[in-house]
Amino acid sequence: MRLRIALLAALSMLATPLLPVVAAHAAGDRIALIIGNAKYPDNETPLKEPINDARDVADELKRDGFEVEIGENLSGDAMRRALDKFYGRIKPGSAALLFFSGFGIQSARQSYILPVDAQIWTEADVRRDGFSLETILSEINSRGAGVKIALLDASRRNPFERRFRSFSAGLAPVIAPSGTLVMYSAALSSVVSDSGADRSLFVGELLKEIRVPDLTAEETLNRTRVGVTRASRSEQVPWISSSLAEDFAFVAGGKVARVDPKPVAPPVAPEIKPIAPPPVAPEPTKSEPIKTEPTKPVAVSRPEPVKPAETKPAEVKPAEAKPAETKPAAPRPETSVAALAHEPTVVALNAKIAANPKDINSLYRRGQVFASKGAYSAAIKDFDETLKLNPKDVEALNNRCWTRTVVGELSTALKDCNEALRLRPGFVDALDSRGLLYLKSGKPKDAIADFDAALKSNPRLTSSLYGRGLAKQRSGAAAAGELDITNAKAMDPNIVKEFAGYGVN
């Protein structure tokens, strides 16, 4: 590869001595896999942007000399086949590009792209059903690709993260082999609100810059970052990582002048840093479209416990168990079970429970689905049955606490949260749930204590950060509360709507 590049450079010097040739890689040595996943059954509605974006990117790359394979709404098996085919097309020294638009999630400091049929209820499921970006890039590298490019428009708030609140939002930094160029549509650990448009701002700016002649790939992506940052007024700042060892252009045969006419530095987005929580130590690693009916994100969780560092939440005194007289804001209306009868996930779980009424996992998961869809009474019944089978199921206790809190059954909810924390001291989810309960009960100081404890374990837990901000404001610390709220909204633009659904404004 180096010999080839050197020869191209030498020939270029003879023809145009002032403009070195960018390694363009001839047609056949430039391959791309484009995936647009929009129809996730666990999401409330199909995503609008991924399919159109994937098709537009595929069309552009074809014009630029790439051999392109495109997949839409791919299941796990279909994604695996598409990736295997992609790997098999890679030749030594070729340029290989992956574009993915859909849901991504980080776990254990790695980023995963998700197929439409991902069944994620615990963090371990992410590694089972998701596809690690690091693993993909490593496999591409092992096949001998000289240039490896990954473009991910996957920094979206997804329906899976709320199921284990130890999550971090957005995507994680990638440890990639040399010769790699990676770009995310948003900053690390950040998410982008769904604009409701048919195409994303990120892809729009990317395609505009790809069509600019005489740019290296790095220059193209840097200009894209500037364009997105400006267009969003610094609310969306894409992330780029490059270890390219040679110049590469998206347009085959392009030439690049080394002097860039007036490079423009992007506006600097303000760095978001919550005040109170300290850093937490990292935790230990042409397919057929899948057509499914959408379901709504699950708002409750089933995480692995994380103990906060020597932090004890405020103890609950018996006298404090009675909620305040102040009536909380009403949550979203109750959904009937009949309205969910044809939801694919509910249908599958109903069948399992009919075959085995003591299937505790299915009862628990159906309770989660009911809670996420607003069928709170049905959810509580499923959690009741789960706890009859296992009274020490701390996740079921926490989720019943959360559901009861949402509907205003605060005294019984408090008992559930207290029992969950007795069985598993420092349980982050239960701390977060009880903090919400205290917030709705008119006890902001107790809420702050629980949110503080939860944030010790996970400083980027937006529900606790936003809840703490509201609690601080209600306890008289307006400025500190506003800072927490601002930081939480920056990490999760949908957090206000989420709390409104809990009956908290």
- Report the structural category: alpha/beta
Helix content: 40-55%
Q: What is the CATH architecture annotation of the largest domain?
A: 3-Layer(aba) Sandwich
For the record, the count of structural domains works out to 2
* CATH fold-level topology of the largest domain: Rossmann fold
- Quick one: CATH class of the largest domain? Alpha Beta
Which regions have little confidence, pLDDT < 50, spanning 5+ residues? 1-27, 255-328
Count of DSSP E strands? 9
Which overall shape is indicated by the principal axes computed on the Cα atoms? globular
Succession of helices and strands: HEHEHEEEHEHEEHHEHHHHHHHHHH
The pLDDT mean sits at 80
How widely separated are the two ends?
61 Å
Strand content: 5-15%
Biggest sheet layout: 6 strands, mixed
Tell me the number of helical segments per DSSP (H or I, 4 or more residues long): 17
The side-by-side strand order for the widest beta sheet comes to 2-1-3-7-8-9
Radius of gyration: 25 Å
